[in-house]
Amino acid sequence: MDNLNKVLNTTRPVVSGLLHKYTNVVKGFQLRYCKVDAENGLLSYYLCENPDEIQNSVPRGTIPLIGALVNPSDEDSRTFTINSSKGDVIKLKANDAKSRQEWVDGLRAVVENLSSQSRSTKEHLATYDCFIASRKQLQETETCNSNLAKSIESCETPISHIDQDLLMLKALSAATTSTLSQAFVCLQRYHESTRNEMY
């Protein structure tokens, strides 16, 4: 097996090696070449046993790792299962207990990494929705401020010193709307800068 624990380093997108895969009651476990694509979240297995042969061959099957459960089996020290979030289950057997542990730890690391990416994407989409809703609310506030200013300016009776409250309301509304607009721009810039630091 190709040093599977390297999958813990997320910069390594593919891990591969030989495992025995349970096919059916009659045939039992059959040797398969397994390849984990951590970037796309897939484990593919091939009928061939030589990694050079998989270049031009189609996988015998694949199982998605996003949201999957990887569990060591109680039946022996070499077997483990992968339960996909779609309900598919495959049973695999490593050469020994140490190899099984490397596969289990490595696959769990891939699943966790994919889960973190998924959460990050959902959080980004939620934040984006909040910004859209906030921008819409701000536009409505700007429209209300503009309508208020026009209403005050178009009063039929001239504004005198008695109407200072109306002038104060107009100035306060304009200042508040401007402050909200500037705060929104600052918040957007801060969000973009923190996202750039993350990626």
Automatic annotation (TrEMBL):
Keywords: Lipid transport, Lipid-binding, Transport. InterPro entries: Oxysterol-bd, PH-like_dom_sf, PH_domain. GO terms for cellular component: cytosol; membrane. Gene3D superfamilies: Pleckstrin-homology domain (PH domain)/Phosphotyrosine-binding domain (PTB). It comes from the Eukaryota. The keyword Transport applies. Residues 12-112 form the PH domain. This is PH domain-containing protein. It comes from Polypedilum vanderplanki.
